[in-house]
């Protein structure tokens, strides 16, 4: 018997996105839920294979954009009507058509800022340390290797059985991820 | 016969994930920079010194060192501002609009074009800021609660410009950086130098390529592209409104926004070609920046060039068709007045020479294409000169006519920004991957030794 040591999970390494996709589907069918795949570039269908819900990012960005529109128009209205009313060629103080270009710009600015900040926040980035970086081969996860990690927190996780299961998927190798 | 005329591939055959990654990242990490890098960077740096000197004199003495005066109150500063902003627009077009249109060929050139956008916009922003006369109080343009109790006046396109250009720069920066994050992780994992590893690691934000991260990442990237597309159109439309809203013959035209946007894309693609043709050869990037890219960019240039030519035609037609003496006189002055050589050089550079691009023979000869792109760059600068100077130099009353001659400081400011642009671009090529590695990987097969995938 090996002595018990807390680990992050078990990680299988593949050299092909299709093999990883098949492995992710197999792991999900086997009942594993707490797992993550790591790839050098986006692999389409992978989040579905892992059983994730589509991201809610677009809704957050919509909120950011609407806030930008309200803030932009509100700022101009308040400045030109309330704070500093000026008569420019007899035009109405609330010359709303002239306020549209800056309103558009603030809408885009807020949406874009929200998209980036929300994407990073939902991904919990920046995160300088993560257990998967303990695996030596993982540095190829940004070049040409595809990894599937079943985490130790999964209710079905069993050191021996999970390893056997992963080996059955014909990876290049299976490794422990120290936490 | 049609097969032989088929377009070249987007990525040369024979590459897999590892070889594509190595080929692009090694330019920064393993290979020594070629001599031409030092020469060009040196020239750029010289330009930066010229820029600093010019700015120093400008701040000490004021805008009186320029050739601008009444009636020509806008000279090189506005010409160069519009020229640089326009150059920047190709970057956004390539990265955003072509992404939305699912044009895979954009992948090899978008990173470089986005960097070009950033540096071009930075160069552009310098002109209006230094034209303020007191550039250190540029923030007076922004709406903030100041002790003077004054606020900006939002019925003027000039304040729209402040919003448009600053938003454009910010969003371009975000777009470029977000696109870089996975590649910075690749650099972090491949670099040998300890310090560089830490620096790339900080930039990569701990990116580990998790599937859920990629999904949000791609969503965010697509949203940024969708936002940048109308943004780029709005920016140059607002720039054109700086002119079109004024009651001046030659400026007061509803045609300006689309005509300016087309001109911006035209000059931007010309600049991308001007830079990429030598760089591709210098760094042996022919596998990734193929003849397909050159051909497509030449075609975009031809198409936008034709829109611009239509714009020139319509300007002349509107003047002729209008009952306005002033409009007609202005058009006559453009064609036959003291600045007529500029007008006819503009027609030569922007309308006549680019017609060569109709022919595959010229599109496929890189030397010819490069010269045409240079000619278009010059032509687009001349276009702004003609719009700004000829419209202003003959005022409504002959008693207020005058001529505009740029001074040495006008010219050194322009050359200085070109130097800054080159220096920034070459630093970028030295420290960051100039082609988006992770996007190129989506175009090649997984691993050579295991046989070809798709």
Give an overview of the whole structure.
The complex is a heterodimer of chains A (179) and B (454). Chain A is an alpha+beta fold and 179 residues long. Chain A contains 5 helices and 4 strands; from the N terminus they run βαβαααβαβ. Chain A folds into 2 domains: 95 residues, Alpha-Beta Plaits (2-Layer Sandwich); 66 residues, no CATH class. A 4-stranded antiparallel sheet of chain A has the order 2-3-1-4, covered by helices on one side. The longest helix of chain A has 27 residues. Chain B is built from 15 helices and no strands. Chain B is mostly helical and 454 residues long. Chain B is globular, with a radius of gyration of 23 Å. In chain B, helix 3 crosses helix 13 and helix 7 packs across helix 8. Chain B has one domain: Up-down Bundle (Formate dehydrogenase/DMSO reductase fold), CATH 1.20.1630.10. At the A-B interface, helix 1, strand 2, helix 3 and helix 4 of A face helix 1, helix 5, helix 7 and helix 15 of B.
Q: In a nutshell, what does this entry contain?
A:
The complex is a heterodimer of chains A (179) and B (454). Chain A is an alpha+beta fold and 179 residues long.
Q: Main sheet of chain B?
A: none
Assigned CATH architecture of chain B: Up-down Bundle
Widest beta sheet: strand line-up of chain A: 2-3-1-4
- Report the helical percentage of chain B: 55-70%
How much of the sequence of chain B is in beta strands?
A: under 5%
List the helices and strands and how they pair.
The complex is a heterodimer of chains A (179) and B (454).
Chain A: E1 7-14, H1 17-29, E2 35-38, H2 46-49, H3 57-83, H4 96-122, E3 146-151, H5 159-168, E4 173-178
Antiparallel strand pairs in A: 1-3, 1-4, 2-3
Chain B: H1 17-29, H2 35-61, H3 76-100, H4 110-131, H5 157-190, H6 194-204, H7 211-244, H8 256-282, H9 291-321, H10 325-336, H11 340-352, H12 360-363, H13 366-393, H14 408-431, H15 437-441
Helix pairs in contact in B: 2-14, 3-4, 3-7, 3-8, 3-13, 4-5, 4-14, 5-6, 5-7, 7-8, 8-9, 8-13, 9-10, 10-11, 11-13
């Amino acid at each position: 018997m090996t002595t018990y040591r807390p680990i992050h999970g078990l990680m299988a390494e593949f050299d092909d996105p299709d093999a990883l996709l098949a492995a992710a589907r197999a792991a999900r069918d086997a009942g594993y839920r707490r797992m993550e795949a790591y790839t050098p570039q986006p692999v389409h269908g992978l989040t579905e294979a892992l059983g994730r819900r589509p991201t809610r990012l677009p809704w957050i960005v919509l909120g950011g954009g609407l806030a930008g529109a309200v803030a932009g128009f509100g700022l101009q209205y308040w400045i030109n009507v309330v704070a500093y009313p000026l008569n420019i060629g007899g035009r109405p103080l609330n010359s709303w058509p002239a306020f549209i270009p800056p309103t558009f710009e603030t809408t885009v600015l807020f949406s874009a800022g929200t998209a980036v900040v929300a994407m990073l926040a939902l991904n919990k980035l920046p995160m300088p340390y993560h257990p998967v970086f303990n695996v030596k081969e993982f540095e190829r996860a940004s070049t040409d290797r595809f990894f599937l990690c079943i985490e130790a927190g999964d209710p079905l996780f069993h050191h021996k059985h999970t390893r056997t299961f992963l080996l059955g998927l014909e990876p290049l190798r299976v490794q422990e991820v120290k936490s | 016969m049609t097969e032989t005329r088929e377009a070249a591939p987007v990525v040369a055959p024979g590459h897999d994930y590892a070889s594509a990654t190595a080929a692009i990242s090694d330019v920064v990490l393993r290979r020594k920079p070629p001599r031409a890098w030092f020469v060009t960077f040196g020239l750029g740096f010289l330009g930066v010194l010229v820029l600093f000197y010019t700015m120093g004199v400008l701040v000490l003495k004021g805008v009186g060192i320029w050739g601008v005066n009444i009636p020509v109150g806008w000279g090189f500063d506005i010409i160069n501002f519009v020229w640089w902003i326009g150059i920047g627009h190709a970057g956004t077009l390539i990265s955003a609009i072509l992404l939305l249109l699912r044009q895979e060929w954009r992948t090899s050139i978008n990173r470089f074009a986005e960097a070009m956008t950033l540096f071009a916009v930075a160069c552009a922003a310098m002109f209006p800021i230094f034209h303020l006369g007191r550039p250190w109080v540029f923030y007076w343009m922004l709406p903030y609660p100041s002790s003077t109790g004054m606020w900006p006046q939002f019925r003027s396109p000039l304040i729209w410009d402040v919003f448009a250009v600053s938003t454009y720069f910010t969003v371009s920066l975000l777009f470029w950086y977000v696109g870089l994050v996975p590649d910075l992780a690749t650099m972090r994992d491949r670099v040998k130098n300890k310090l560089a590893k830490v620096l790339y690691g900080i930039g990569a934000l701990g990116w580990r390529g998790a599937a859920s991260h990629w999904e949000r990442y791609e969503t965010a990237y697509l949203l940024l592209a969708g936002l940048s597309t109308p943004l780029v159109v709005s920016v140059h439309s607002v720039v054109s409104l700086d002119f079109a809203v004024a009651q001046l013959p030659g400026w007061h035209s509803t045609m300006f926004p689309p005509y300016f946007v087309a001109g911006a894309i035209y000059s931007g693609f010309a600049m991308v070609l001007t830079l990429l043709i030598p760089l591709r050869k210098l760094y042996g990037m022919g596998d990734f920046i193929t003849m397909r890219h050159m051909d497509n960019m030449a075609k975009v240039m031809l198409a936008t060039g034709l829109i611009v030519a239509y714009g020139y035609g319509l300007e002349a037609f509107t003047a002729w068709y209008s009952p306005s003496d002033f409009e007609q006189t202005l058009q006559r002055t453009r064609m036959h007045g003291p600045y007529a050589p500029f007008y006819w050089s503009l027609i030569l550079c922007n309308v006549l020479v680019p017609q060569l691009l109709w022919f595959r023979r010229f599109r496929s000869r890189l030397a010819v294409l490069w010269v045409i792109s240079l000619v278009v760059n010059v032509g687009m600068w001349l276009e702004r000169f003609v719009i700004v100077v000829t419209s202003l130099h003959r005022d409504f009353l002959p008693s207020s006519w005058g001529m505009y001659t740029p001074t040495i400081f006008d010219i050194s400011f322009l050359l200085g920004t070109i130097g800054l642009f080159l220096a920034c671009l070459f630093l970028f090529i030295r420290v960051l991957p100039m082609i988006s590695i992770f996007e190129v990987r989506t175009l090649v097969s997984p691993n050579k030794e295991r046989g070809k995938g798709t």
